[in-house]
Amino acid sequence: MRVLFAAGMHRWAEWEAPLRRAIAEVGAEVDLVLVSELAAVEAMIYAPGGATPDDFGPYVNCRAVLSLWAGVEKIVGNPTLTQPLCRMVDPGLTQGMVEYVVAHAMRAHVGLDRVLAARDWQPVVPPLASERPVAMLGLGALGAACGQALAGLGFPVLGWSRSEKEVAGISCYHGAGGLRRVLEQAQIVVTLLPATPATENLLNAETLGWLPRGAAIINPGRGVLIDDDALLAALDSGQVGQATLDVFRIEPLPVDHPFWAHPRVTVTPHIAAETRPETAARVIAENLHRLQTGQPLLHVVNRAAGY
Ligand code: NDP
Questions:
Q1: Which of 81, 130, 136, 294 could form a disulfide with 159 if both were Cys (CB 3.0 to 4.6 A apart)?
Q2: How many angstroms is it from 272 CA to the middle of ligand 1?
Q3: What is the pLDDT of residues 133-156, one digit of tens each?
Q4: Confidence (pLDDT) at 43
Q5: Which of 74, 193, 204, 225 to mutate for ligand 1's pocket (most ligand atoms within 8 Å of CB)?
Q6: Pairing of strands 134-137, 188-191
């Protein structure tokens, strides 16, 4: 099976060896190439950026597009993409996200910024985690894992998803009514939703107003989930106590964006969770093996829902 690595030349050096190893391990018969006659391509490994295809039409024999990224908003609406699109669910990526979210939730919880800035003796004892409800917006591969890690530390975790779900250790809510119930209780909000028309500006002046005063926001999901101006206004009024943002409408975040200078905003440069070639290559190889042996593919994107 001819598989085109269409994730950009700049990624090839990092991915080639892990992919070849993983493909050999699953026993798939794959001719992995960086350049090919388009009609000969039977599957494609994809990531946005670089010289990646915009028009999937000429790949007439391509039966699957396998994304190296978990978020697929840059490709899911492409009308020329008629093949199944699989997104990345990678144990290394999930672990990275759990570590990022736990670190920043604990930082907000114990008031670490204040502790580090203080140069005087003013004891402020934080409540225990059990008294600090966390809202996990999104209960997918990443949100569920992060929610369960925080629940394991003692935080009451309120999860929110599109469909009704049960996740051990998390009180689950869904739909529009569920969002308000979750936000009204949350002192820390983590957004791990995909960027879709339904999630754009989900955190806006109205929904931020549902939070208890001083709540902390952690957004490693996507920049469009939050209305930037509403967040800045909520920070300035004290409605939101602090925000840790990893993702932005424009990346890199422009140097003159007010988030950089705001004293209660922490900007991280889209590093919450990287796809790790060693673990992610196994996911790609498993799907190539499935494609070759006629088994259902893993992590197929729901094109109508957009994630
Ligand atoms: P999943 O697709 O596994 O989960 C998405 C979750 O969001 C699901 O629980 C889904 O609900 C919920 N959801 C989607 N739309 C809505 C809606 N309209 N209302 C309520 N809930 C909704 O994705 P992952 O957990 O793997 O990843 C989440 C996002 O994290 C990615 O889309 C990406 O944007 C971001 N990400 C960021 C990274 C970083 O480094 N900053 C790295 C990797 C990913 P349901 O369960 O009902 O389907």
A1: 136
A2: 14
A3: 999 999 999 999 999 999 999 999
A4: 98
A5: 193
A6: parallel
